[in-house]
């Protein structure tokens, strides 16, 4: 009886001691799952430009012009409509361009593809939209005419800073977005040029919490 009681007591102590270990194991598994989910939310072409099927605007127009100029020179692929709408035809031609320029053929215009396309566009406006200012250390430079996820992140941040919806989060950097940027820059006591570069992004991040996705689109 005594031996049985001692054995039962020992077993209970071992079971109690095992609970924290099981809880720790469950916690580690949950943490790994969370980290993997966060990794999946990071865009494959983090920072700067990111155009894919469904994107629209001036930057897409510039990319389409570059694709057509390259097609005229290389004779490869098909011409695309320069309409600022990233549809299946544009995606297909992006893949052709990538395959012939040593790039990953995924049909997405990220930083590397945009940089390669830049030499095929004309005009400073398109060259600037496709490739962020190199002097900015890779930080995107957004201004009137810019389009895409990075602009949407800035618009959300400006709304959060204002404490109300002052801008439509449409990813199009127009006059209203510029006006709100200038207002924020004045508040932050930095250059009031209406351009979102490294300093403006840093000031926004100091005042507003960014999502994981936006942290990567607006790296500084």
TrEMBL record:
Pfam families: PG_binding_1 (PF01471). Keywords: Membrane, Transmembrane, Transmembrane helix. The keyword Membrane applies. Residues 60-117, 147-201 form the Peptidoglycan binding-like domain. It comes from the Bacteria. InterPro entries: Peptidoglycan-bd-like, PGBD-like_sf, PGBDSf. The keyword Transmembrane applies. The chain crosses the membrane at residues 21-42. This is Peptidoglycan-binding protein. It comes from Streptodolium elevatio.
């Amino acid at each position: 009886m005594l031996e049985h009681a001692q054995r039962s007591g020992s077993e209970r102590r071992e079971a109690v001691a095992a609970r924290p270990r099981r809880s720790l194991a469950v916690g580690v598994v949950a943490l790994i799952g969370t980290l993997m989910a966060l990794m999946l939310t990071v865009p494959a072409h983090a920072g700067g430009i990111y155009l894919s099927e469904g994107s629209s605007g001036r930057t897409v127009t510039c990319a389409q012009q570059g694709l057509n100029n390259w097609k005229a020179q290389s004779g490869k692929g098909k011409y695309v409509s320069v309409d600022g709408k990233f549809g299946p035809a544009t995606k297909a031609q992006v893949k052709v361009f990538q395959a012939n320029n040593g790039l990953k053929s995924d049909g997405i215009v990220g930083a590397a593809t945009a940089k390669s396309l830049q030499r095929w566009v004309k005009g400073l406006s398109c060259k600037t939209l496709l490739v962020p200012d190199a002097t900015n250390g890779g930080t995107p430079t957004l201004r009137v005419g810019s389009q895409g996820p990075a602009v949407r992140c800035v618009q959300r941040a400006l709304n959060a800073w204002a404490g109300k919806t002052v801008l439509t989060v449409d990813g199009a950097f127009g006059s209203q977005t510029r006006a709100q940027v200038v207002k924020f820059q004045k508040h932050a006591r930095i250059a009031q040029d209406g351009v979102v570069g490294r300093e403006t992004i840093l000031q926004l991040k100091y005042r507003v919490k960014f999502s994981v996705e936006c942290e990567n689109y607006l790296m500084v």
